[in-house]
Amino acid sequence: MSRIVLTAMALTLLSVGPAAAKGMTPPGKWLTVIKDAIRAELKDPEIATFNRIFFASGKVDGGGFPVCGFVGFKQKTDKHPTKQPFFGLITPPDTGIAGKFESIRLGTTAKQADEIAQTCKQHGIY
Cα(56)–Cα(64) distance, rounded to whole angstroms? Predict the structure, then answer.
């Protein structure tokens, strides 16, 4: 079951440009699974936009690949979409299925976003 801890975007994550990414872009089937899992956690999923989704080349204990990225969505008080970092694990696909994504955290506070940035760095993604 997915669990998300909502927190605000840290400035450190905003400073990481696309050229700094060290992770790999997930295959199309994985992107669909990742986006669907994140959308399932949002109040208004149809307006979600995604960018800079990367995964680490090495598996963690349990067999999943670490995934980091950003999702943009509008909250009731926002005039413009807010980009939030996320971290999760994708389980490799089995014979033709796309795999399973478990969203671990969606960052909306500086502290949580910083933790996501550190986790992504530890896995060599950013």
Answer: 10
- SS3 of 61-89: CCCCEEEEEEEEECCCCCCCCEEEEEEEE
How would you write the pLDDT of the chain (126 residues) with one tens digit per residue?
333 332 222 222 323 333 345 789 888 888 999 999 999 988 888 888 999 999 998 888 777 899 999 998 766 666 666 788 999 999 876 645 567 888 788 887 889 989 999 999 999 998
The answer to whether residues 37 and 88 touch, using CB atoms and an 8 Å cutoff, is yes
Specify the pTM.
Answer: 0.73
DSSP secondary structure code for residue 122 in this structure: H
Q: What is the DSSP letter of 90?
A: E
